[in-house]
Hints:
Elements: H1 2-18, H2 32-50, H3 65-79, H4 83-89, E1 97-99, E2 105-107, H5 118-121, E3 124-126, H6 131-142, H7 148-155, E4 159-161, H8 164-170
Parallel strand pairs: 3-4
Antiparallel strand pairs: 1-2
Amino acid sequence: MEEVRKERRKLLIENAATVTEPVIKPDKFSSWQRLKRVVAYVFRFCKNIRRKSDPKQQFLGPLKMEKIQAAEDHLVKQEQSTLHQQMEKGNFKTLTAFVDNKGIIHVGGRVDPALVPYNIAHPALLPHKHRISVLIAEDEHRRGHVSVAATVAKTRTKYWIIRMHSIAKAI
């Protein structure tokens, strides 16, 4: 009987290690804001399940801004997984890319960091043809329905999307 229990435990560990498919697929969303909020609610749901034994420690009510920011950071890191190999090869030397303490790749700049906030002086680097990059560009375009150059400039205050100009033209 003891041998059967040990074998079952091994099987469970093996199955848990093989699941690598993302739970939330950005392709299913039409809004950057909605995607961030859904990811934040999923994070909250997971934490509440872990704290199920003590209902007083569960989180309820509207999302706080730091939880939405944590979801945004998670999505950006997930999207940047392809960029780490390119960065190691030196493809982004002209952008002076670096990795911050959260693991997000940022672009260096010539702007004095004392004059502007960190995310404007060092926008996060994102790949070209990924869904999150398109969602961010569409979100910035929706906020003002402005020209291609203005959409690119507004987007680059927080994100440096590779070949952003072509994405903005397609919107």
